[in-house]
Design a protein that fits this description.
By secondary structure, the chain is an alpha/beta fold. It has 22 helices and 19 strands. The structure holds ligand C2E and magnesium ion (2 copies).
Length: 583
């Protein structure tokens, strides 16, 4: 770990008792609080009580930002409110220095909600957004336990949410006790592993599906545990994110990747861009752009060799500081990727406010492996079309099967990262691929707006008149199937009328006339329609016969696509070609 003292300062900032704090708070200190609590319990031993430890997250930072005087006034007011509330409820409040409070009250969820509201309202009055109170609650189940151990349990519960950006309340239980114990053990192990250099990164190639060549890679951290072997990140990253220790680990990986890129250049191996993961928590603690600049400068590598993956959930934070960090990274020339897009944290609209270069969609979230369903396709399609509209490149992650790949190709996806091509691999293995130039494409991620024709965009813009469209499409009809598979032609276009040569009839008479002239058994139609419904992207083909007014038999080479289901009726699009049509 290169920068221990820097991180120690950051993480300890919330825990240090600041002896210079000057708030005048007339609440019992720890000893008096515990004695009074014991008395209250003993006076009414059959009542249910709770001890609640309270802490205002990052209060020291508040003092730094807004000044000690305002900080003191804020704490004094919180103390007054807690004191008043506790007296009303028949409990007691205590203050133990800095921003540490505790209350002992008869237990009732409504009382607690009221207290919570009181503090929150007060905090908002001071515009202290981001400085939430955290509560560790110990609902006392055994009055005979020593009062200090009952308080310790509330503090333990509090430690579970202190500094946590998403949760602010924790209730003590045996399960929580064990969880916290396990987390502490893991944390100690992680810290030691960082010092011992037991973290490495694997690389997973990103490929261009058109050439099957590698255009870049992603660095994925791996813990080489002396006993457990390789521990995957999902087993410890969420915990490290909860308590902020993700920051030193991430910095370690970022620096290691920059160092590795340098080593390639030194060995005359041409590097490809490599992306690293940045957790949302990193942005709270450090100036991310500053760190990347520091590492790239230290190892003398160009910024376009480092790409930055920020998980989608981070974008839910639309704070000014987060947006500014992204701007700084972009201005410094790093490519920004939005990771795990589609996992549901942010809407597509986020893309309009926070500009990213590349979207990574995760197949896991889209669940295409089980069945390529209509809903899934429309989600992917809307992602692709939004990305196209914004000029953002899309890379599909987690592609495992040929079927998934084919579907993505059909939708115009050029870049893929997944087991179908390569699994994450040790650095040495990736270097072998790098030196085998045949598999490498140095042109990077390109956005080619003119590569694909996206009909919807043209239709939306009304670029073509109905007549021109009809000529382009050729003969087309729309048909419906109800639940019992009864078929009904619902609409045909002008070229279709011309093709069949029946004119001058009302729509219903026309359709009746059509049925008479199509001799194939109904099963032939139904088979094609059913196949189309199963193959949403590719549709189904089939030949149908039609008897013209002059008794000739035309073969309709039909292509059928399932469109949607409305009111239990499935709608299909059928396009027709005949042998005498020009190609
Ligand atoms: P991620 O950044 O979305 O990385 C992709 C994950 O999907 C990786 O898991 C990768 O091995 C896996 N994957 C790739 N292709 C396939 C596939 O075809 N099928 C399946 N089933 N999985 C595939 P991994 O390495 O276990 O990493 C999990 C997550 O841990 C990463 O998701 C990322 O969020 C986090 N992570 C990894 N390294 C770091 C790091 O250095 N810092 C931070 N903050 N997070 C990291
Ligand atoms: Mg990633
Ligand atoms: Mg991902």
């Amino acid at each position: 770990m290169s920068n221990k003292s820097e991180f120690d300062d950051i993480f300890n900032s919330n825990n240090n008792k600041d002896s210079e704090m000057g708030a005048t708070i007339n609440l019992p200190g720890i000893k008096e609080f515990l004695t009074k609590s014991r008395q209250i319990i003993d006076e009414a031993p059959f009542e249910k009580y709770a001890i609640i430890a309270i802490d205002i997250d990052f209060f020291k930072l508040f003092n730094e930002l807004y000044g000690r005087e305002l900080g003191d006034r804020c704490l004094e007011e919180i103390a007054t409110r807690l004191d008043r509330q506790c007296k009303e409820l028949g409990g007691v409040a205590g203050y133990f220095g800095m921003d540490d409070f505790a209350v002992m009250i008869p237990w009732n969820e409504d009382y607690y909600s009221h207290l919570n509201r009181q503090i929150n309202d007060h905090i908002f009055k001071y515009n202290m957004e981001g400085f939430y109170p955290s509560f560790g609650i110990n609902v006392i189940s055994d009055n005979s336990l020593s009062i200090s151990s009952l308080y310790d349990r509330a503090v333990l519960a509090l430690s579970h949410v202190k500094g946590n950006y998403t949760e602010h309340i924790s209730v003590y239980s045996e399960v929580l006790h064990d969880k916290i114990k396990d987390e502490r053990m893991l944390l100690i192990e992680v810290q030691k592993a960082l010092q011992d250099g037991d973290f490495i990164f694997y690389l997973q190639p990103k490929c261009n599906t058109k050439s099957d060549k590698i255009v870049g890679s992603e660095a994925l951290v791996r813990w080489l545990h002396p006993k457990k072997g390789i521990v995957p990140p999902n087993e410890y990253i969420p915990m490290l994110e909860e308590n902020g220790y993700i920051v030193p680990l991430d910095c370690y990986v970022w620096e290691a990747v920059c160092k590795w890129q340098r080593s390639l250049i030194d060995r005359n191996i041409k590097p490809l861009p490599c992306s690293v993961n940045v957790s949302r928590i990193d942005f709270y603690f450090i100036d991310v752009a500053d760190h990347f600049n520091k590492y790239t400068e230290k190892y003398g590598i160009s910024h376009d060799l480092i790409e930055i993956e920020i998980t989608e959930s981070a974008y839910a934070d639309d704070s000014f500081s987060f947006k500014k960090s992204i701007e700084d990274l972009k201005n410094a020339g790093y490519t920004i990727l939005m990771d795990d897009f589609g996992s549901g944290y942010s809407s597509l609209n986020t893309l309009r406010t926070i500009k990213v270069d590349i979207l990574k969609t995760d197949m896991k979230f889209l669940d295409v492996s089980k069945k390529f369903e209509e809903k899934t396709i429309s989600i992917i399609e809307s992602i692709f079309s939004m990305a196209r509209e914004l000029g953002v490149t899309v890379i599909a992650e987690g592609v495992e099967t040929e079927h998934q790949l084919k579907c993505l190709l059909d939708m115009g996806c050029t870049y893929v990262q997944g087991y179908y091509y390569y699994k994450p691999m040790p650095v040495e293995e990736f270097e072998k691929l790098l030196t085998d130039g045949v598999k490498i494409d140095y042109s990077g991620f390109c956005y080619h707006p003119s590569e694909q024709l996206h009909i919807r965009e043209f239709l939306d813009r009304n670029l073509y008149s109905e007549t021109v469209l009809n000529n382009i499409l050729g003969p087309v009809l729309f048909a419906e199937l109800d639940e019992a598979d009864n078929m009904k032609v619902v609409r045909v276009n002008e070229p279709f009328y011309k093709l069949v040569g029946i004119d001058g009839l009302s729509t219903e008479d026309f359709i009746y006339e059509m049925y008479k002239r199509m001799p194939d058994p109904v099963e032939v139609f139904l088979n094609i329609f059913h196949e189309a419904q199963e193959n949403l992207l590719t549709g189904a083909k089939g030949d149908l016969h039609f008897i013209t007014t002059d008794q000739r038999t035309l073969v309709f080479h039909s292509k059928v696509f399932y469109l949607c289901t409305t009111d239990k009726k499935r709608l299909f699009y059928v396009s027709i070609r005949t042998d005498d049509m020009e190609d």
